[in-house]
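REQUEST FORM: STRUCTURE PREDICTION
Request ID: SP-0412
Submitted by: Lab K.M.
Chain count: 1
Length (residues): 130
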Amino acid sequence: MVRALAIALALLFAASALECRVILDQRARLQAWERDAPKIAAAELAGRQDELVRAGRWLHEYYSSETGLRREGGLVQDGEPDFVGISAWLFDTYLRHRLQGSSEPAARVAVVEAIERTPAWQDAHRAKRP
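STATUS: Completed
RESULT:
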């Protein structure tokens, strides 16, 4: 009986030591990823200027379109660029989807779907109904 308990205790100790090593390895990998993430993001963004200009023009047109927010000035509001809209839809939604592997058209669909869930879009479309 004592022998069986000693063997079980030794096995539990070995399993605990192995689990501790796995946790320490994962922690080191996470720290390396956190350290390298900005470099990886910068490399992914390099050379995307033309794409971001296309996406910005598309978003501007979408904002002014009948299916969009129906804003006469598009991404220009009160004589200034709509920095909130640009940051939310181009950088947070569009670019995040592109960096996750979505195509340009799929990222645009994600932006449209997100905009259509906003009160601003719903108000613009509720006001035009007969």
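NOTES: The chain has a mean pLDDT of 90.
Reviewed by: T.R.
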